[in-house]
Amino acid sequence: MTPSIISLIPSTTTVPxxxxxxxxxxxxxxxxxxxxxFSRRNAVVWLSLIAPxxxxxxxxxxxxxxGPKEWLRDQKKKTAKYLLAPIDASRNILRSAxxxxxxxxxxxxxxxxxxxxxxxxxxxxxxxxxxRSSFVQFQSNTGVEVCTxxxxxxxxxxxxxxxDPVKLAAETKLIDLIRSFASLSDMANExxxxxxxxxxxxxxxxxxxxxxxxxxxxxIKECIEA
Length: 226
Description:
Helix content: 55-70%
Strand content: under 5%
Number of strands: 0
Oligomer: single chain
Structural class: mainly alpha
């Protein structure tokens, strides 16, 4: 009797490799408070980003086709909050300065005076020549526009003709605003604001500047039809 032959068949079953372990989810840490504030540098960056929407020459928009110009106008409306942000930031700074100025005499000292002067300088957004830093002055001397509010007007009115009454009105309100900031700065630097009556005069001038700022904002809104 022939012995049975047992053949050994190697197993083809393989153990699947373990899936790679999923790396732990790393949540981004919250941004520091400083990066959330709308600084002057942020304002200039936003305005420079909006600028490409405003660089089409008038001749390119005068072929009788309203499409491109209407599209640009619509884009300006959509970015209105960024265009108006420097104005709102300046108004909030002025309100902070007003609260300091209207403190009681015993609560107002050298520290508060320095803070008020710093706030007024910041609120002017480099539009008052005597308040510009040396670096900003260098930019001005080289032909770089450093007045944030002037950049706002330029962007907002870029689709309007040079003689358009809405554009001219916005430019007039800008002149009034810069003049008001300059006057306010002079008062804060020249008056002895340690005296309560002088502080009240500066506070009143500050509120006049807020009014000019509100009028300027309205002029910008009219330029972009917001």
